[in-house]
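TA notes, week 10

Several of you asked for a full example with nothing omitted. So below is the full record: structure tokens for the whole chain, then the designed sequence directly under it. When grading your own attempts, check the secondary structure regions first.
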């Protein structure tokens, strides 16, 4: 059975794709089946959404704290996303996980993936794609977490992000979460 396979390589896997494509849902599916895989928890300046917990879903910080982290070299990558908020990957937990032989996933945006590829060229970059743009629009609207203006901005960004899919090592279409997670896991094991 695919889910029971043990990992033989220490590897940094970057999962990226446009907003509302289901990256987080796919990653949660993988982690539910393989709790030995570690997820890097990103830091962000955006406010928590309903149900999000600081230190579990994100580390929520002020813009000043985020800038301090950049200046201190504490982030592997960082970016302003959707022209609204800053996101980044704390350096130390990733380095500790890799040094201890753990498999680790970064669920980040396209800009961050590009930065990781430059600084860690052996990282395995996987782009999650929606089946169609229409599916992406439906998924974004159904979340109910953004107003009309924010949806418009996110869709414009998503179109640009889709154009960058070729920069990744692999592209996986998220038709259905369990199948997408299975394909991602296979790509993590193959590298």
């Amino acid at each position: 059975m695919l889910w029971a396979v043990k990992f033989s390589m220490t590897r940094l896997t970057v999962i990226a794709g446009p907003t509302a494509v289901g990256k987080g849902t796919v990653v949660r599916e993988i982690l539910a089946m393989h709790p030995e895989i570690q997820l890097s928890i990103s830091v962000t300046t955006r406010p928590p959404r309903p149900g999000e917990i600081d230190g579990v879903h994100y580390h929520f910080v002020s813009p000043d704290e985020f800038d301090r982290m950049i200046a201190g070299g504490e982030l592997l990558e960082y970016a302003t996303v959707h022209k609204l908020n800053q996101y980044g990957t704390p350096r130390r937990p990733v380095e500790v996980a890799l040094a201890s032989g753990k498999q680790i996933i970064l669920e980040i945006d396209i800009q961050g993936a590009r930065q990781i590829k430059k600084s860690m060229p052996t990282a395995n970059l996987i782009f999650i794609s929606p089946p169609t743009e229409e599916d992406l629009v439906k998924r974004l609207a159904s979340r109910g977490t953004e107003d009309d203006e924010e949806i418009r901005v996110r869709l414009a960004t998503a179109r640009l992000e889709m154009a960058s899919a070729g920069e990744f090592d692999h592209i996986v279409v998220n038709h259905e979460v369990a199948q997408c997670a299975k394909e991602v896991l296979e790509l993590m094991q193959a590298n």
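The chain has a mean pLDDT of 89. Use that as a sanity check on your answer.
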